[in-house]
Amino acid sequence: MSHMDGPGIVIVGAGPAGIGAADVLVRAGLRPVLIDEGRRPGGQGYRKSDPTLGLSLGYARAANYKRIHAVFTALETQIDYRPETLVWSVDGRAAYLAERGAVVDAGLSYDRLILATGATDKIAPVPGWTLTGVYTLGGAQVILKDQGCSIGRKVVFYGSSPLLYLAAAQYIEAGAGKVTILDTTPFARKAAASLKIARAPSVLCNGVALLAGLKARGVTIVSGVSGLRIDGEDGRVAGVSFQAGRRPMRLDCDAVAIGHGLRAETQLAELAGAELAYDATFDQWLPRTDADGRAADGLYLAGDGARIGGAAAAELAGRVAAMACLADLGRSIDKAELIRLRTRRDAYHASQEGLAQAFAWPRHAFADLPDETVLCRCENVTAGAVRAVARSLEGVSDINRVKALTRCGMGRCQARMCGLAAVEVAAAARQEAAEALTYYRPQPPVKPIFIPEPALSEV
Amino acid sequence: MEHGTDKMGTSPGQLHRLCRRRTPDVTFSFDGVAMHAQEGDSLLCAITTLASHLRVHEFDGRPRAGFCGMGVCQDCWVWIEGGHRVRACTTQVREGLRVTTRGPLLPGMGAETSA
Ligand SMILES: Cc1cc2nc3c(=O)[nH]c(=O)nc-3n(C[C@H](O)[C@H](O)[C@H](O)COP(=O)(O)OP(=O)(O)OC[C@H]3O[C@@H](n4cnc5c(N)ncnc54)[C@H](O)[C@@H]3O)c2cc1C
Ligand code: FES
Q1: Global pTM value
Q2: What are phi and psi of A425, to 5 degrees?
Q3: What's an example of a GO molecular-function annotation for this chain (chain B) (predicted)?
Q4: If you average pLDDT over residues B37-41, what whole number do you get?
Q5: Which sequence spans correspond to the domains of chain A?
Q6: How far apart (Å, rounded) are the C-alpha atoms in residues A175 and A161?
Q7: Residue in B21, B65, B83 nearest the CB of A52
Q8: Structural domain of residue B47, as residue ranges?
C-alpha cells in the first residue's frame, strides 16, 4: 500500500467528514488513503452537479460548500484519493475493495480506520411506493444534480425533513414543473422546536429563508399530512390521496419523492467492531463513540454515519476524529483547537436535535399501515406478513428472526430501505417499543458486488 | 411495454431533461429498441427519460424504474451485453451498448440470480 512512511490511515467517505479528517492528517504530515464509492468528491449533499450539465444551483454557491471543495482541491495531490472504489467489507486491520466494480484481491491493510460513510434517506413506506415514479428524496436530488433531470412534471415531495424543502427548492430553481410539499409533521411542532434549532443560528436562518422562498414561488405546502397512499395506473404514479388534518384530499401527480430524514450508513462500522445503540432522537440505531469519535481500538467514526448532524457538523466531527487518531498515535495535538472544534460541532448537533423534533419520524403511523402494503421492496414482503410473524415470536425481540421467517430485509439492499420501518411495524404488532428489538445485522459484502467478466468465466 | 425513441420531451418516459449536456449524443439499445442519449448519462437517465421502466420485479412481475438513484436500493438492475448485471443508476451509457431488462437464462435457473 502507498502510505509512504508513517502509519497507514484509511478514511472511507469523501464527504465533508472525510475531507475534514484528511485535511487534519495532511497538516500533520501524513498521507491518508481516502476512498469513496462515488465518482466525484463532496459526499451526498455537497455533491458537485455534473460539470457537463452546466447546471447552476444555489447550494453550490453557498460559502460552506465552496470551502469544503476548496479544502479538497488543496489536498488532492497530498492524499491517496480513490474514487469509484467501494469498501465492501472490513475486518480486523484490512479494508476490502472493489474498484469500478472489480474486486481487488488483497485487502488494503491499515493501522487506523476513519469511517465517514454518511447517511442516505430514511424511508417510511406507504401504499403504492413500489409504483414507478416514486423515488427517495435523495434520489430526486441526485437525478437532478447528476443527470439534469426531474423525476416528473408534477412532483409531490412527501415525508418530513428539512431536505424535503431543500429538494423542492432545487427543483423549482432548475425549472422543473409543478411542485407540492406534503409534510407529515404539524406546523406547530416546528415552531416549538425553533429555539433548539437556533443553537446553530445559521441553520434556523437558512430554514426560514428557504420557507419564505418557496412560499414566494407559490409552492403549496401542506403540514400534518397523514394516511398518504400513492395511486397508480399501469404501474405508474397517477396521484396521491391523504388526510390533511381530518380533511381527505387528492392530488394528481406523476412522481413522488419520499423521505423522512437521514439513516446513518453503519454497516462498515459494525463490521469493524463498533457497537450500535438505539438513539431516541433520530429513531435509529447509531454507533457508540466517545466525544471524539473513537468507537473501538483504532476505529474512528465521524459525520452523518456516526450521528446525523448535517454537513457543517460532519466536517467538524471529521476534524475531531482525525485529531483523536493523531493523539492515539502519540502525536502532539493542539488541545485548545480540539475543544473549540468540539464545541462548534456540538452546537450543530444540538440544533439537529431541534430539527428532528420539527420533522418527526411518523412512528404512530406504522400500526395503521394496511396489511397488504409492501414493506420490503426487494423481496416483496408485506406489512401483514411481518406482523403475523412478529406476533408469533415468543420471547425473542429480534428483527433478524422476523427476517429469517419472512425474508423482509433479506434482499439486495440489506434492509437499507425497509429496515427501520420493519422494526416499527414488528414492534407495534408486539406492542413493544422499537428500541426493544435487536436491529438488522450487517453482512459482507455490504453492497452487491458485480462480478466482472474474467471472474465470471472462471466460475 | 412501450419504449419511446424520440429525443426530448414527448415520450412515455418518467424522467424529464431540464438541460442538455455539453456532450456528444450516443445511440444504444434497450430490449432491442434503438435509443438516443448523451455521453455522461447514467443508464437510469438514458433509459427512463424514454421508457417508463427498467425491469419487471422477479416476484410480482410489476415494473420498476429505480428508487434511490444512488446505488443504495438495488432496484435498478439491468443486464448488458456479455451477460453482465449492472445498476442502471451507477453505470454510464456507452455508444452501441445493448441493454436488456432480463438476463440470459442459465440452465436450471431463473432469469436473474441473486447477489
Ligand atoms: C441525498 C442527500 C442529499 C442531501 N442534500 C443536502 C443539500 O442539498 N444541502 C445540505 O446542506 N445538506 C444536504 N444533505 C445533508 C448533508 O449532505 C449531509 O449531512 C452531509 O453530507 C454529511 O456529510 P458526511 O461526510 O458525514 O457524509 P456524506 O456526505 O454522506 O459522505 C459519505 C460518503 O461516503 C461514501 N461511502 C459510504 N459507504 C461507502 C463504502 N462502503 N465504500 C466507499 N464509499 C462509501 C459515500 O459514497 C459518500 O460519498 C443531503 C444528504 C443526503 C443523504
Ligand atoms: S436506483 Fe437505487 S440502486 Fe439504482
Answers
A1: 0.94
A2: -65, -45
A3: iron-sulfur cluster binding
A4: 96
A5: 9-119+263-355, 123-260, 363-437
A6: 22
A7: B21
A8: 25-100
Which residue type does A439 have?
Y
Among A429, A434, A427, A387, CA closest to A285: A434
Cis omega (within 30 of 0) for bond into A445: yes
Q: Looking at domain A123-260, which of 3.20.20.110, 3.20.20.60, 3.50.50.60, 3.20.20.70 is its CATH number?
A: 3.50.50.60
Which of A55, A84, A131, A132 to substitute to test the interface with B, most B CBs within 10 Å?
A: A132
Give the DSSP H/E element, type plus range, for residue A300.
strand A299-301
Please report the pLDDT score of residue A89 as a whole number.
97
Q: Superfamily for A363-437?
A: BFD-like [2Fe-2S]-binding domain (1.10.10.1100)
The architecture that CATH gives domain A9-119+263-355 is 3-Layer(bba) Sandwich (3.50)
Contact B19 A53 (CB under 8 A): yes
Q: What is the pLDDT of residues A159-177, one digit of tens each?
A: 999 999 999 999 999 999 8
Q: Give the pairing type, strands A299-301 and A112-115.
A: parallel
| B9 assigned to some structural domain | no
Could you tell me if the CB of A268 is within 6 A of ligand 1?
yes
Domain count of chain B? 1
Q: Give me the mean pLDDT over the A12-32 stretch.
A: 98
Which residue has better confidence, A1 or A100?
A: A100
Q: Which atom of ligand 1 is nearest to the CA of A85?
A: 43
d(C-alpha B16, C-alpha A143), whole Å: 10
Let me know if the fold of A9-119+263-355 is the same as that of A123-260. yes
Contact A242, A182 (CB under 8 A): yes
pLDDT for the residue A211: 92
